[in-house]
Fold each of these.
Amino acid sequence: MKKSTRKLGVVAGAAAAAFVLAAAPASAAPSTVWTVNPSPVGFSAANSANAVVLIELAEGNGIAVVCSKSALSGSLRSTTGNPATVGTLDAVAFGAPGAPCSSLLGAMSFVATTPWTLVARDYDASTGVTGGHLGDVDIRVTWAACVFRARGTIPATYTNATGRLSADGTAGGLTVVSQSHCGDAAPVGAGLVVKADYLLKKTGTTTVPTIVGSRP
């Protein structure tokens, strides 16, 4: 592997399945009253397509990692505040038995330490999209002898019409905080970028939860 690596990006195509993160919509005024329907509600979600993990090298090259299976589960609830925690992710999985994440370097594993939080910040009534981030993100990544850990936040959006929780791969928020046997492939301080889409449903049903923000 080449020597100068500045940042790492985890990318899951829009039709990708993996980890979902996205930039907040260019939106309306911040909201302070968040109404989740139904509330409280447990949810489960699967990725909508393959997740692509890209480790970006300084030279502009990269190593792609594909995760064909990904899932998450947690709960949502009404609350007040700005920003405000409207949900938690109690389980986040990348890859699955018989379907590991793969790359030219071989199998790569992602282990999430949960819970993560779903934090709402802005609401656009014209589109039904809530912008915010996933917080308390903690991921350990392993391939061969290299192991590194990234912590921080992931920009995210939630769309009421489809139940789509999305991450668009916006940089900033996740940082490599420790590493072992990775050299310059994953230096401490490097950024981790995640992009993916999940479709949320009330657990055991086809009901799509909604999140609406309003000012008091």
Note: Residues 153 and 173 are 5 Å apart (CA to CA).
Amino acid sequence: MTSPERILLGDTVAKSRYHLTRESLVRYAGASGDFNPIHYRDDAAKSIGLPGVVAHGMLTLGLSTQSVVDWLGDPARITSYRARFTKPVIVDPDEGAIVDVVAEVGQVDYDSGAARIDLTVTFDGHTVLARSEIWISLR
């Protein structure tokens, strides 16, 4: 992988694949305190029009950010991030769900020592986070 100090516009700096299971959701709920039943009960999810249990949005966002943290080697180099949630990640009780993340350099400003990393986050062939970007310090 390219080091942060040597990145160029368009470089792919990270690719990650995350397998979520219902157990993953229970563990995240315990860590985050978000025990909304749509994250562990199909009937609750279906009662509000979802096709089944969905992953926590913040879990999906956190995983996408983690791919960049792993590349950087230091979470303190992330100065900001944002994303818009576009589709839920449905977590099948047997097979779970696969979330893919591709991180590419969208902007580099060597003078200020900052860069924007654009994330493509998909599940089942659909983008689940739009306008997903992370600003990093190059220094």
Note: The domain at 4-19+56-137 is CATH 3.10.129.10 (Thiol Ester Dehydrase; Chain A).
Amino acid sequence: MTAQVDAMLFDLDTQAAAETEGLGAAIGASPWVAVLLLVGNGLLAPIAEERVWRGIVQTELVDTWGVAPGIAVTAVLFALKHVVVDGSVARLTTLLALGLVFGLVRHRWGTASSTVTHVATNTIASASIIAVSLYGPV
């Protein structure tokens, strides 16, 4: 749902089409691009992000400010990091929603659970991006 809101707010259809074409060409030229995307974005990045954002930042903020503010501020910082580093302002609502979900999962079941959730989310998203770039939208 948030991805659809982002698409409407930020006119992502044009941008997404251009990115999909470029990725499809890169994967067509070298299948290793797909493997690197799945390993890097699907596995390594979420593990590192969960260790830092939920394992360190959220722990400190929850201990200092309480559960709701600690999770909320961590989610905002997580989303802003992606906006600044990845240039992904168009995914702001999606990133905020995911930051809250990962934060709630971490608070309830621990960092290992939020890491598994984040890895699953990123792997499915990366595989979907690869599939669309190779075969077009369904």
Note: The chain has a mean pLDDT of 86.
